[in-house]
Amino acid sequence: MKDKILEAIKTELTVIEEALKSNLNSQHPFINQVSEYVIFSGGKRVRPLLSVLSAKLFLNNKKSLDKKILNYIYQTSILFEYLHVATLLHDDVVDSAEFRRGRKAARNLWGNQATILVGDYLYAKSLKIASSLKNPEIMEIITETTLIMSEGEILQLLNLDNTSLTEKEYEEVIFRKTAILISACCEVGSILGGANLEERKILKEYGKALGMAFQIVDDLLDYTSSETGKDLGRDFKEGKVTLPVIYALKNSSSQEKERLLYLLKNQKTSEKDFLEAKFLIEKNRGFIETLERAKYYVNKAKESLTKLPESFYKNLLLFLADYFLERKK
Amino acid sequence: MKDKILEAIKTELTVIEEALKSNLNSQHPFINQVSEYVIFSGGKRVRPLLSVLSAKLFLNNKKSLDKKILNYIYQTSILFEYLHVATLLHDDVVDSAEFRRGRKAARNLWGNQATILVGDYLYAKSLKIASSLKNPEIMEIITETTLIMSEGEILQLLNLDNTSLTEKEYEEVIFRKTAILISACCEVGSILGGANLEERKILKEYGKALGMAFQIVDDLLDYTSSETGKDLGRDFKEGKVTLPVIYALKNSSSQEKERLLYLLKNQKTSEKDFLEAKFLIEKNRGFIETLERAKYYVNKAKESLTKLPESFYKNLLLFLADYFLERKK
Predict the structure, then answer these.
(1) Would you state the pLDDT for residue A283?
(2) Contacts of B239 by beta carbon, 8 Å cutoff, 6+ apart
(3) Where are the beta strands (DSSP E) in A29-146?
(4) A-chain residues within 8 Å CB-CB of B126?
(5) Contacts of B130 in chain A (CB under 8 A)
(6) Least CB–CB distance from B120: residue in A134, A140, A150
(7) In the prediction, which pLDDT does A249 show?
């Protein structure tokens, strides 16, 4: 079963990759060059993948052979990757990031100006794809999602120096920053697959919980990733408070708390400082409790699918939820 | 007649202003604060105004009394102002602008980071308003417009140091930067008013030509505005080549050309440098030929309305075209 699932995911990813490539067709070589750099830089394609799987979950046998419908599903799925990458580009400018996914950040190669504008371009591109569906319901989901996401980015910026960020506030930010988009991927996918209202709601909930788990794991991997990329520890070095720090601060002695805050606020964090912080977080259960919280959301995501009948694609979505929890990078 | 027209415009602007205010309703005070600062900073509301007038042009007597339809028209019109302001915010970051409309630029008060993100927010907000119309045709016009606009911004950035920019290349940029949006305002307005396909095309053409004229006059006023705002000469000081410079370079002696290019490329343009450049441009017919080109587009805009029957709103649109040409700020 697992082999069949992995094989299916691999096939989907190949088709998605093709669709991503064939859609970058600006008349201006520079726009394509920058877009290609940021889109083909080792992204996991989580969002398009979830969108396609959420659609296929509801396709009956007849529809699942209809090339036109399938094409429609793949073409739609990539809008979520463009949208995601657009937010990464603006994030990198806002954070003055040097690296992204182990490579130089786009702003490091083409400057902040071009990076902001190519972000705008990819955002516009993604909404253009959405509008070509001529489906007002889907359009409303996507525009509502982007609005909430943009509010989330601003909240995150305002919270940057807030070292007393609570777990609740943190979750509010990641809901807006990540979960709402992954939720939209799944909901829109399910609509394209022909889901009814109840089924749509199930996929929306699945995506939301999965998105929360995904971001929590991401924030954990910023400390513990097996990849020794140059962007490891990026959050901490930027002074960004995420769940591992929140839990560690809660559990630590006042002396350790003071030290951790000092390291976090330090403008020039050395590798040694980062390792010390990592040690303090580990010691104060920051990582283990973060993983527990991610598990909570993964289980929530899986439970939301309970009402759906058994099927290959349901198993695939259940598998993915566990897979996201176990990823090491 | 002129009094009646001015009165009508004044009334429209009051309603538009109200709609702009009532729609800024983020839960987050900071977002509203920055948005208000940039939206209520003396914008001329050209885009919403044209959208409303283009709708009213086609409303029959019965519809023009229907409050629901009218509300729909005003609510839609403001999306164009939000979209416009979003691009201004990103422009200001890209250009490192200190001032906008004679006041401190938002980035000067809240920094580049918040300015980029509030730009994203207003962009998302404008598309959210668009999607609430549940009209796929309008949505496609708007997303196509934003895509072309974002390409225009990138083109402009790439052309920044191109002192051999041709008139044709300049017009390609301003078409994307300004005319396409003003064209969309008019076309979308006409659709809301109930225009048929031919009528829509007329309004689209009117808006396109008017938009070209509007930007050309804007670029002229950057040198000749009666307002002695701190952003006077902004284009020149940034080294941006616009139509007055293109014409002046074409007409000047090689000595004057060299001097003008020197002043343009100078990183720290003093007020004296700017005045010297202005003198050289004036002497070499840069301003007068630019005004001629704006006139050409104003006439084109007016001519595109020829096929429409006489009406109060047609006169209003004709009046506005002339008014845009004559504005001094």
Answers:
(1) 97
(2) B160, B161, B264, B265
(3) 99-100, 103-104
(4) none
(5) 143
(6) A150
(7) 97
CATH number (1.10.600.10, 3.90.70.10, 3.90.1150.10, 3.40.570.10) of B2-326 reads 1.10.600.10
Residue A326 CB coordination number (10 Å)? 8
Q: What is the pLDDT of residue A228?
A: 59
The residues of chain A scoring below 50 in pLDDT are: none
ipTM value for the complex: 0.93
Look at residues B88, B87, B53 and name the one whose alpha carbon lies nearest to residue B73: B53
Residues of A in contact with B127 (CB under 8 A): 127, 143, 146
Report chain A's mean pLDDT, rounded to a whole number.
Answer: 93
Using the beta-carbon criterion (under 8 Å), do B134 and A140 form an inter-chain contact? Answer: yes
A42-70 per-position pLDDT tens digit: 788 999 999 999 999 999 877 777 899 99
Phi, psi of A278 (to 5 degrees): -60, -40
CATH superfamily of A2-133+145-152+169-326: Farnesyl Diphosphate Synthase (1.10.600.10)
B260, B280 in Cβ contact below 8 A?
yes
> In a 10 Å sphere around its CB, with 0-12 CB exposed, 13-18 middle and 19+ buried, how is residue A35 labelled?
buried
CA of A306 to nearest chain B CA: how many angstroms apart?
33
pLDDT of residue A328: 78
Test A154 with B30 for CB contact under 8 angstroms: yes
DSSP code for A285: T
Q: What separation in angstroms does the CA of A270 have from each of A255, A266, B10?
A: 21, 9, 61
Q: Which residues of B59-95 are buried (b: 16+ CB within 10 A; e: fewer)?
A: beeebeeeeebbeebbebbbbbbbbbbbbbbbbbbbb
Asked whether the beta carbons of B251 and B285 are under 8 A apart, the reply is: yes
Among candidates B31, B94, B132 on the partner chain, residue whose Cβ is nearest the Cβ of A154: B31
Neighbours of A161 (CB within 10 A): 11
Give A114's contacts in chain B (Cβ within 8 Å).
154, 157
The residue extents of the domains of chain A are: 2-133+145-152+169-326
| Cβ–Cβ gap B147/A130 under 8 Å | no
Between chains, do A120 and B93 touch, taking CB under 8 Å as contact? no
Q: Model confidence over A162-216: pLDDT tens digits? A: 999 999 999 999 999 999 999 999 999 999 999 999 999 999 999 999 999 999 9
A-chain CB neighbours of B149 within 8 Å are 124
| CB within 8 Å: A143 and B124 | yes
Whether residue A117 and residue B94 make contact (CB cut-off 8 A), yes or no, is yes
Q: A229 to each of A103, A109, A234, A282, A310, how far by Cα in Å?
A: 8, 18, 10, 20, 40
Name the residue facing B134 among A117, A136, A155 (closest C-beta): A136
Using CB atoms, pick whichever of A28, A125, A155 lies closest to residue B155. A28
One-letter identity of residue B155: L
Q: Where are the alpha helices (DSSP H) in B27-177?
A: 29-39, 46-56, 67-95, 106-132, 136-158, 167-174
Look up the pTM and report it. 0.94
Contact between chains at A117 and B150 (C-beta distance less than 8 A)? yes
Helices (DSSP H) in A97-135: which residue ranges?
106-132
For residues A59 and A56, what is the distance between their CA atoms, to the nearest angstrom? 5
Mean pLDDT in order along chain B per 10 residues (329 residues): 90 95 88 91 92 95 84 95 95 86 88 93 97 97 97 91 93 96 98 97 98 97 79 86 97 96 89 94 98 98 97 96 88
With tokens 């094409």, the residue in question is A71
Distance from CA of A206 to the nearest CA of B (A): 24
